[in-house]
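so my prof wants the structure for this chain in the tokens format not the other one, which i didnt know existed until like an hour ago. anyway here's the sequence
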Amino acid sequence: MSQSPAYPPSAGPAPSASLGRLREAPWLPSALAGAALLAFAYAPNVLDLATIWENEPNYSHGFLVVPIAAVILWRRLVDHPFEWSPPRVSWLAWGALAAILAARILAYERGMSWMENATLIPAAMLIVHVLGGWELLKRAWPAILFLVFMLPLPRAVNTMVALPLQRIATIGSSFMLQLTGLWVVATGNVITLATPRGPQQLEVAQACNGLSMLMTLAATVTATVTLVPMPTWKRLVVLASALPIALISNVCRIVATGWLYYLLEGELAHERAHDWSGYLMMPLALVLVGSELWLLSWLFDDEEATAARPIGPVAAPRRA
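here's what i got, hopefully its the right format
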């Protein structure tokens, strides 16, 4: 009598079996070679981006984008293995790849660094398509699109987004400070607090507009909804909540800083108050995201683990 499998059919293949199949995949050496060539070709661009990640606090999460994208790709390939065969790629795909590389050269000649760096995303998609056809691309596209978080916002977009966020943070934190019992007056982006030691000014600088939290939280939420099984509608709701959660977290940070300014004395104490409240932003945002996921699961019992579908259509494995 044959024994029942360790994993029920509805749960998918055993993780060890899927991992072993992934390691023995014949397409893996070609994919690694293609990734190495792409990394070599775009090495100067990645080094420029690393400089931005190191010097710009709004984009310090960029160092984690590639490792997270690799985890997303591994998870997709383990969950949806397929039998590779040499794909029949049309000349149209090769022509598109040549056009992308030509656009990169043109952007480099014209000093359009952001556009040059952005060509990495479509180039990676086309190389995956050339190596494994649509079957591999259907599994890899979420990981490739996640690389968008490597890129800083263009200057025009950064200015357009940063200034409204700065103003919203000032107005929201002033309202919350008044609501919690402090006397404050907002003039522009400067909040004046009445303290026992006299008026204290708290400036909501451009670096405190919440853009850093928004970018980091957007990357974190995107990785979460990609890796955690859930219905598509729930993914969209959680993604849409990244902006209000980032704004709430930033307002809470400024309110906490204002109260510490009220309670503490000395310039060093004020600097430490600013740092301490800043360290609490990301944990607070993650708690809010987790609470949102728990609330949605409590309100809508949709049995996510068994009923959720993967992101994007993934065809059934082809059999030899």
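also thought this was worth mentioning. Confidence is low (pLDDT under 50) at residues 1-19, 304-310, 315-320.
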